């Protein structure tokens, strides 16, 4: 499902999953996430998330299912995940390095049935760890939870 900014504002979902590809740059204007038909630059994302906080309806869980969404630099500690939490999102599962599409899809299938944040993250990681195809930390360890 693709939600526009207006739809997100109107629907006020508690959980949003962004499964996409980010583009990182030292220049904030050139840092964005790719959507199916457009780009959302970092400033637009920050505004959208911040608007929800101002209306006292913060996003409970913003899942950043993309490469290196918790990797930051001096400007942005914890990358996109840090931005999300600073903008009012309560919790943000994010990734530390480049991820594999297939294992990440499997991770999300195991993650969502029990969305209880840290416990769910841990259980999903354990399930992938026990799968011989994904037992290497490359597959199950890049996801971390930022926020509360």
Please describe the topology of this protein.
Elements: H1 5-11, E1 15-19, E2 21-23, E3 32-34, E4 39-41, H2 42-54, E5 61-65, H3 79-86, E6 91-95, H4 101-111, H5 118-130, H6 137-140, E7 143-147
Parallel strand pairs: 1-5
Antiparallel strand pairs: 2-3, 3-4, 6-7
Helix pairs in contact: 2-3, 4-5
Q: Which regions have little confidence, pLDDT < 50, spanning 5+ residues? A: none
CATH fold name: Rossmann fold
Radius of gyration, in Å, reads 15 Å
CATH class: Alpha Beta
Describe the structure.
The chain has 148 residues and is of the alpha+beta class. The protein has a single domain (5-147), classed as 3-Layer(aba) Sandwich (Rossmann fold), CATH 3.40.50.1460. Helix content is 38%, strand content 20%. The chain contains six helices and seven strands; from the N terminus they run αββββαβαβαααβ. It has a three-stranded antiparallel sheet with strand order 2-3-4. The radius of gyration is 15 Å and the shape is globular.
